[in-house]
UniProtKB/TrEMBL annotation:
Residues 165-321 form the FMN-dependent dehydrogenase domain. It catalyses: isopentenyl diphosphate = dimethylallyl diphosphate. This is Isopentenyl-diphosphate delta-isomerase. It is found in: Cytoplasm. Involved in the biosynthesis of isoprenoids. Catalyzes the 1,3-allylic rearrangement of the homoallylic substrate isopentenyl (IPP) to its allylic isomer, dimethylallyl diphosphate (DMAPP). FMN binds at residues 61-63, 91, 120, 182, 212, 278-279. Substrate binds at residues 5-6, 150. One of its GO terms (molecular function) is isopentenyl-diphosphate delta-isomerase activity.
């Protein structure tokens, strides 16, 4: 049998890896040699819109929709439960259209009955489908992903993108859980952030370049690759600053190429309230298994606590008060675009 598209995405994501050019090397934290802090007073809890999470780090949307992906989702959900991380599932449209694959998503709720689980659909979804996706996994929130460039490069992808904003607006009005609009790795810019804010979207996940690259993944699936599109989009650092020029603190998630505690802290210090990680978690769970991923998450949390202690902050929102120095391409971008 032909390998499913969902598994092709997993294989290509692992094979291509993450470039690490998410722009966070342009962000320098300002050292504090008199921090008045100790490791046992640091709280990692965070609030993003109406969601309260025990860690700013969460497992971002990846998979579901094919038999093999049920195993991956079961493993990720086990880690999410043990480490008390929120977790998003991959796009549920396949399960809306085909009941046979529903279990590959529902496994996440079965394994983790009390955790924060986030449903996921694309912007082609109708309000009724959004409600069904939320109900399917008793989700605490719903992600709507934006992935126009991925669809256009995907041989079998969508070619028409009209009415996206209107459909998202209706979904926001009709579903009973917070809606997070996210990019899959090309970034959300200020103009679009303003449009999304105006239709009542309270949480954005800026999903910039520098991590899993869906232009490269779809090109790897094409007979005639459009490799000249592999650098499309804006870095996570730029997307974060663009979105924060429209949205208040407490409403922005950083994702795209975040792989360690220092990168996560830089994103949080810039003003994010949460940090989504996908490719880095997929790599560990697929190559080394559940225990290794749990160890990696412990390392991430220990790293966050270490850096927060060094900076003299006790909570994520106190990180927002810390100064940062922005240089390189991120600074040049902000100057050109008039972003403070
Ligand atoms: C994804 N991502 C994703 N996002 C989404 O909203 N719906 C989806 O179905 C998927 N599917 C998916 C499959 C695989 C294998 C990967 C690795 C990723 C995108 C993901 O949530 C995230 O936005 C990007 O991967 C960028 O973050 P990282 O991977 O650089 O941390």
């Amino acid at each position: 049998m032909r390998i499913s598209r969902k598994m092709e995405h997993v294989h290509h994501a692992l094979k291509l890896g993450q470039s690490g050019r998410q722009g966070l090397s342009d962000i320098k934290l300002v050292h504090n040699c008199l921090p008045e802090a100790s490791t046992d007073t640091i709280a990692l809890t965070t609030r993003i819109g109406d969601l309260t999470m025990s860690s700013p780090i969460f497992i971002n949307a990846m998979t579901g929709g094919a038999e093999e992906t049920e195993t991956i989702n079961r493993s990720l959900a086990t880690v999410a439960r043990e480490k008390k991380l929120a977790m998003a599932v991959g796009s549920q449209m396949s399960a809306i259209k085909n009941k046979e694959v529903v279990s590959s998503y529902q496994v996440v709720r079965q394994v983790n009955p009390n955790g924060i689980i986030i449903a996921n659909l694309g912007s082609e979804a109708l309000p009724d489908q959004a409600k069904r996706a939320v109900d399917m996994i008793e989700a605490n929130a719903l992600q709507i992903h934006l992935n126009v460039m991925q669809e256009l490069i995907m041989p079998e992808g969508d070619r028409s993108f009209t009415g996206m904003l209107k459909r998202i607006e209706t979904i926001v009005q009709q579903v009973s859980v917070p809606v997070i609009v996210k990019e899959v790795g090309f970034g959300i810019m200020r103009e679009n952030a303003r449009q999304l804010s105006e239709i009542g979207v309270h949480i954005l996940d800026v999903g910039g370049t520098g991590g899993t690259n869906f232009a490269a993944i779809e090109n790897a699936r094409r007979q005639a690759p459009l490799d000249w599109l592999n650098d499309w989009g804006c870095t996570t650092s730029v997307a974060l600053l663009e979105a924060l020029s429209i949205y208040p603190r407490g409403s922005i998630i950083a994702s795209g190429g975040i792989t360690n505690a220092l990168e996560a802290i830089k994103a949080l210090t810039l003003g994010a309230s949460g940090v989504g990680m996908a490719g880095a978690f997929l790599k560990v769970i697929q190559s080394e298994g559940i225990d290794a991923l749990m160890g990696f998450i412990d390392e991430l949390h220990e790293g966050l606590i270490l850096i927060m202690t060094a900076l003299g902050v006790r909570s994520v929102d106190q990180l927002w008060q810390r100064p940062v120095v922005i240089s390189g391409e991120t600074a040049a971008w902000c100057t050109t675009r008039g972003i403070d």
